[in-house]
Amino acid sequence: MELLPTNQAINTLAVDTIVISLFQGDTTFDGTSQTVNEATSGLLQEHVTHHEFEGNLLETLTFHSPAGLKAKHVIIVGLGKSADFDSVVARKAAAASIVEAKKLRSRSVATVIHGETRKEADVQQLSQAVSEGLLLGNYEFNRYKTKDQAQRAKQTITQCLLVNNPNTTIESLEQGIKQAEAICAAVLNVRDIINEPPSKIKPVNLVEVATEIASLSDSISLTVLDKSQLEKEGYNALLAVASGSEEPPYLIHLTYKPQGARKKVALVGKGVTFDSGGLSIKPWSAMLSMKSDMSGGGAVLGIIQALAELEALGTPVPVEVHGIVVTTENMISGKAMRPDDIIETKSGKTIEILHTDAEGRLILSDGLTYASLLKPDYMIDFATLTGAAIRALGRSYAAFMGNDRALLDTIGQASQQTGELAWELPLPDEYKKQLESPVADLQNISTNDYSPGAIFGGLFLQEFVNDVPWAHIDIAGPSFADEVTNPVYTKGGTGYGILLGLETVRRLVD
Ligand code: BES
Ligand code: ZN
Ligand code: ZN
User: Fold this and answer.
1) Closest C-alpha to ligand 1, atom 8
2) Could you tell me the distance, in angstroms and rounded to a whole number, from the CA of residue 451 to the centre of ligand 3?
């Protein structure tokens, strides 16, 4: 979908669908809604007066063939209370509107920049948020639906005009569109990779994706450790998880090094391209969607792709970012790691395997050791680590935890700005006893009935960070949507973590 800024008045546009918005309780119109109301001889006024539309957040009302306009449909989307309006609301409203426009089989859409700010300073941020909502809400993964492909192609939205407010410049609006296009290219690419079936995306395919990303910019370099190098260098935790699979594991290391970088950040992602549970095998229903167990790795790849796209736009983020993805399958075979096995990790610490399905923390132990050897200022890992994080916070929120107050606060602020919800959990020393194994340095699960699973995962990872300021983001919940609760996220892989991670990295230099 192409996004284009325009200075033309919305009522003059010959598009399939026009999108306007109203705050809760708006009964007198101004700006675009007034223009549309006047052109349609009071159509909006009539419906608002009769309480058919109240402006509640994400409420929509559609008018068909409105007299007085060239467009075939008008969608009004509610923005909620004006006091609560921000770019997160604008992003969601835009996503909700494009979902509606799709149902109308529109090919072309024109939308206002929600909130219709008159402040030049806010235009870019809002137009970016609206553009992101449009691009993310319009996503569909349908390449394996063979029926009606031709019809489907005819029904996609190809163009969306963003209508500029006469009081502000179109340049800021255009900048916002460009930023959104750069970032969303990465998010949509990662959604595709998550949604592809697990026989199509294996560890070697993540290496291919990393190779493509590296080719986007001269500031990016790629190092890949293959199985023999992992063996030579003692990445035994990653190798142990991979031992039950026919597919070889890899450690992928992308380095984005722009000129004048002011900080060094290492991002580490869990890239399990399919998690069967291993010998401690999952029941069938829990194994569904385990193609998405590489979403943390996907987020890390997506962040590096977004950095490359932003650099190409002439707006580079001045941070040296290392994207490390530890990737393998977790499968069963006669060669698979066994419960009771003890592995010696790259760090030197030994782990007793009690449960082969707690594999993410094993491969991340080696990934975090690799990252800490780069001596970064900060380290953040992204992982679909525990079902417990979903049970604690539901699908909407990631759980994050770590050892550095300033870094955690930065993640919290980035979450607020991007709308990628995240909630902090503690890492109390008094639970560390649960990590102790009778035969090794650590055990990979707790045997305590009331162990807090997501926190245990965090405490386990903390053993491998070597005092680097670090945060762990457990994205098991928001990485995959079983149902749509937020129009920004379509069903399936969400690409969660790219907006959050990118904004966090940006803020670490400010
Ligand atoms: N990949 C799963 C976690 C997961 C579960 C992600 C559901 C997304 C949705 C992870 O490897 C796992 O299996 N964790 C176990 C840990 C347990 C054995 C301590 C879990 O959460 O059940
Ligand atoms: Zn598992
Ligand atoms: Zn897993």
Assistant:
1) 476
2) 18
